[in-house]
Write a structure and sequence with these properties.
280 residues; alpha/beta; Arc Repressor Mutant, subunit A; D-Maltodextrin-Binding Protein, domain 2; 9-stranded mixed sheet; two-stranded antiparallel sheet; 44% helix; flat
């Protein structure tokens, strides 16, 4: 039986770090999921690959042999897969692209319509989640591409900056109101909430939502003061104003991310080129 591409790549990460929890963090999956992956690989190989200890893991002789040969095996597979795609008439392929809903609203129109029109045999499957989860999915081979905010550096990740943004405080009046509205899942919002508290800015209550679009609509309707990215808040229909130059802010980098080792076909390169050339 041939081992799973993912199981083998996960094992190589463990072989590099010699620490399952650290490897799981670098890959972007849970530790139990990684442990199950390693067990599957050991079952396929038919021999133990790791010796587990409190301080980490060590490779068995079988594990050392697999670590030496496994990277070449993955590279050969990617070359075979890319070569097979090259045999198709024209550029063809199916790719997954992840980004936060709010980022998608202003970034995808800048390149996706043109890409789909130019390459009819390229299919794009969209997925929407928090940027950190999209980045983890790309690192762990669960997603092909991502357009994410402030990605964490990873040795296998290509990061191309597309544009900049700024998260700050907005209100219909341009002044702080009684209610603060924000998404508690965003690190930027948590940072600004802490800065507001340090500045002595107090709100009588808070209102939270996981949708920046909902937050924008509520602030626009006068429900309160919102923490929003500038590219979302400056929608002309919203009518929001920044709460003065002294309001705390958080600088964002909007980046295109992908694994270079997994995107070698002409179709993949066409997607990469289209995104990099987009004016967002």
């Amino acid at each position: 039986m041939i081992p799973s591409h993912f199981d083998l790549s996960y094992f190589l990460e463990v072989a590099t770090t010699l620490n399952i929890s650290r490897a799981a963090e670098r890959i972007g999956i849970s530790q139990p999921s990684l442990s199950m992956s390693l067990k599957r690989l050991e079952a396929v190989v038919g021999a133990p690959l790791l010796i587990r200890a409190k301080s980490g893991v060590q490779l068995t002789k079988a594990g050392q042999f697999l670590a030496q040969r496994g990277k070449n095996l993955l590279q050969d597979w990617e070359a075979i897969k890319a070569g097979a795609l090259e045999q198709t008439d024209g550029l063809a392929g199916r790719f997954s692209l992840g980004c936060h809903v709010s980022v998608a609203a202003y970034s995808l129109p800048a390149f996706l319509p043109k890409l789909l029109k130019q390459y009819p045999q390229i299919e794009i499957q969209l997925a929407h989640d928090l940027s950190r989860k999209i980045t983890e999915a790309v690192i762990s081979h669960q997603m092909d591409f991502g357009i994410v905010v402030n990605p964490v550096s990873h040795p296998d990740l290509v990061i191309h900056e597309l544009c900049e943004d700024k998260v700050t405080v907005w209100d219909r009046t341009g002044k702080y109101g009684d209610t603060l509205i924000f998404d508690p899942n965003l690190n930027q919002a948590q940072f600004i909430v802490q800065k507001l508290e340090k500045k002595g800015v107090r709100f009588s209550r808070t209102l939270t939502s996981g949708s920046l679009e909902v937050i924008t609509e509520l602030a626009s309707a006068g429900a309160g003061t919102a923490i929003l990215p500038t590219r979302v808040a400056t929608n002309p229909r919203a009518g929001l104003k920044p709460c003065g130059p002294a309001a705390p802010s958080f600088a964002d980098r909007i980046c295109f991310v992908y694994r270079a080792d997994a995107q070698k076909s002409n179709a993949a390169r066409a997607v990469v080129q289209a995104v990099k050339e987009a004016r967002i």
